[in-house]
Design brief:
Number of helices: 10
Largest sheet: 3 strands, parallel
CATH superfamily of the domain at 12-80 and 261-302: HUPs
Structural class: alpha/beta
EC number: 6.1.1.-
GO biological process, one term: glutamyl-tRNA aminoacylation
CATH class of the domain at 12-80 and 261-302: Alpha Beta
Low-confidence stretches: none
Helix content: 25-40%
Bound molecules: glutamic acid
Keywords: Aminoacyl-tRNA synthetase, ATP-binding, Ligase, Metal-binding, Nucleotide-binding, Protein biosynthesis, Zinc
GO cellular component, one term: cytosol
InterPro entries: aa-tRNA-synth_I_CS, Glu/Gln-tRNA-synth, Glu/Gln-tRNA-synth_Ib_cat-dom, GluQ/Sye, Rossmann-like_a/b/a_fold
């Protein structure tokens, strides 16, 4: 610990933010337990957030099972869980602010059209079309400069679209390079944010008033989260969150992207493949202490 600071110690706030679209697997259990243990060790708060903006895939039944599994693991949280679908107004307000700044436009190309555009480009030019850190082709932004009348006409005609951040315009607004504090590598380091890697990211869709990136940035601020502890797979996304924090004037938490728990085949665990659900392990007779050992954590802090 560094020398005593003259200002009051901040109360640290951690959160676990599962999506209730499947059962918790060992990777989620690790993340939840680690957040909880760190919060308790810091004398801080442990919050829960249900990232349920996808109304088709997230269900109350999965939510109940997740809360039950967390309780079975011995976890308690310090405030009522925040359900994102109950806060769509908060994300709409943030989106409005970015729209007011002229940083958002409706993109009408679907994912399939974007992939087809990228393949056609690659074939024609013999050059790779840029891809985001998840491997998806960047949005070509052919409709970034559509006239207002055409935009309105296509929206009024019921054409599906996504509200996209104009990444170039957003980056021009910044007065300095963006960075965030990361401790996932051991010590604390300042990591330069590189949101341009993602291109014109989706902030909301015509039928869903937010995206993961927008909701997570707004919620971490509204829940007063000081420490974001989550899997390493989300490290590249943090660049987008850092940009949204800068554009929306939100506080910047510290980040710790932890190692992922891998399956026996060395692959990342996946809900959709039904990997190692905590529930199945419990039903097979393992105890919460066994789960803690399996993910490499010691005894629960008291
Ligand atoms: N809802 C995300 C997930 O289940 C976690 C997002 C986050 O921790 O920022 O992977």
């Amino acid at each position: 610990m560094s020398a005593a600071s003259p200002v009051a110690e901040e109360r640290r706030v951690f959160r676990f933010a599962p999506s209730p679209n499947g059962l918790l697997h060992l990777g989620h259990a690790y993340s939840a337990l680690l957040n909880h243990d760190l919060a308790r060790a810091a004398g801080g708060a442990f919050l829960l957030r249900l990232e349920d903006i996808d109304r088709a895939r997230c269900t109350p039944a999965f939510e109940r099972r997740i809360l039950d599994d967390l309780q079975w693991l011995g976890l308690g949280w310090d405030a009522a869980p925040r359900r994102q679908h109950e806060h769509f107004d908060d994300y709409a307000t943030a989106l409005d602010a970015l729209q007011g700044e002229g940083l958002v436009y409706p993109g009408f190309m679907t994912r399939g059209e974007t992939r087809a555009f990228a393949s056609a480009f690659e074939e024609r030019e013999g050059l790779p079309w840029p891809r985001d850190p998840d491997g998806a082709p960047l949005y070509p932004a052919l409709d970034r400069d559509l006239g207002e009348a055409e935009r309105r006409g296509r929206i009024a005609a019921g054409e599906p679209f996504a509200w996209r951040l104009d990444m170039g315009a957003a980056l021009e607004r910044l007065s300095a390079e963006l960075a965030f504090e990361e401790s996932g590598g051991g010590g604390r380091e300042a990591v330069r944010a590189d949101p341009a890697l993602w291109g014109d990211v989706v902030l909301a869709r015509f039928d869903t008033p937010t995206s993961y990136h927008l909701a997570v940035s707004v919620d971490d601020a509204l829940q007063g989260v000081t420490d974001v502890v989550r899997g390493r797979d989300l490290l590249p996304s943090t660049s987008v969150h850092r940009l949204l924090q800068a554009l929306l004037g939100l506080p910047v938490p510290r980040y710790h992207h932890h190692d992922l728990i891998l399956g026996g085949d060395g692959r990342k665990l996946s809900k959709s493949r039904g990997d190692a659900a905590v529930r199945t392990l419990g039903e097979a007779g393992l105890t919460p202490e066994d789960i803690r050992r399996m993910v490499g954590l010691g005894l629960a802090p008291r």
